[in-house]
Amino acid sequence: MRLDKFISERTELTRSQIKTLAAKGRVTVNGSVIKKTDTHITPETDSITVDGRTVSGQKFRYILLNKPEGYVCSTSDHDGANVMGLIPEELRTKNMFPAGRLDKDSTGALLITDDGELAHRMLSPKSHIPKIYIVKLARPFQSNYVDIFKNGIILGDGTQCLPARVTNVENCDTLAFAQIHEGKYHQIRRMFASVDNHVENLMRVTLGGLILPEKLGSGQFMELLHKDVENLFSPLDFDRFCCDFSGVFSAFLINK
User: Fold this and answer.
1) What pLDDT shows up at residue 256?
2) Same-domain pairing of 119 and 207
3) Are residues 74 and 186 in the same domain?
4) N or C: which terminus of the chain has fewer CB atoms within 10 Å of its end residue's CB?
5) pLDDT of residue 255
């Protein structure tokens, strides 16, 4: 692969910018300064740096972000503070985007990637990647929610939702876990509104079989390997997850 193509695909730099940097001696291959950007390199074995920063040889980049409140899932600055601004420049590529959305007031697990094929698999209605949320409610959880959600709740505007799972969190009657297999606009909030309750705080804690790490603080992120990303397509046991992780995630919303 040409050096400029390699760097361009894995950074936000254009080929003209790369050419300028190389001419100034700011690009190296295996420790040697390379000024000709049409030089051919082997991505799997060669070490490439730009301004002293190593350019990853991984074809695609996968970043798991614990999205904080106040950020929109967008790549455009016109929409206000967006999640891409939370990712350091050296980790961003020009084709990177949030795979799926969380509304501005919601928090939690968000995958940011430049792998369009994986994002399509993840978001396709055929895949039905399950997502689990922990919810802080304004009023106590009612036992009849379980069957209402399971049967496919109808939203206030008449929209029919797919069957979903919901359960209360032990020792706190205003916290609940909810699992859905789709992503309608403000769906969790609207589902609880349909049973005359109000969502005060909402945090997504899983994407498929990918669990938001306990130690990943709000606004923090971690880079994933492709083999880790494949956990997206390995569904979790909802009941077991809620039992094992209720203490981990409920503390965050209780404190809020």
Assistant:
1) 55
2) yes
3) yes
4) C
5) 60
Q: In sequence order, what are the beta bridge partners of 178?
A: 133, 166
Residues 108 and 21 in one domain: no
- Expressed as residue numbers, the domain containing 34 is 3-54
pTM comes to 0.86
From 4, 38, 77, 103, active-site residue? 103
Tens digits of residue pLDDT in 127-165: 779 999 999 999 999 999 999 999 999 998 999 999 999
Q: Is 100 left (phi over 0), alpha (psi -120 to 50) or beta?
A: left
* Sequence-separated contacts (24+) of 233-236 with Cβ below 8 Å: 233/121, 233/127, 233/129, 233/208, 233/209, 234/208, 234/209, 235/130, 235/208, 235/209, 236/130, 236/132, 236/206, 236/208, 236/209, 236/211
75-100 pLDDT tens trace: 887 778 999 999 998 888 888 999 98
- Torsional sign, CA 227, 232, 237, 238: positive
Q: Say whether both 45 and 134 belong to one domain.
A: no
| Confidence tier at 10 by pLDDT (50, 70, 90) | confident
What number of other Cβ atoms are within 10 A of residue 1's Cβ? 13
- Which residue do the tokens 């074809």 mark? 59
How many domains are contained in the chain? 2
**Shared domain check, 202 and 167:** yes
Same-domain pairing of 48 and 71: no
Residues 6+ apart with CB under 8 A from 234: 208, 209
Residue 140 belongs to domain with CATH number: 3.30.2350.10
38 and 139 together in one domain:
no
Q: Is 20 exposed, middle or buried (0-12, 13-18, 19+ CB in 10 A)?
A: middle
Active site residue 103: yes
Query: Dihedrals φ, ψ of 251, to 5°?
Result: -60, -40
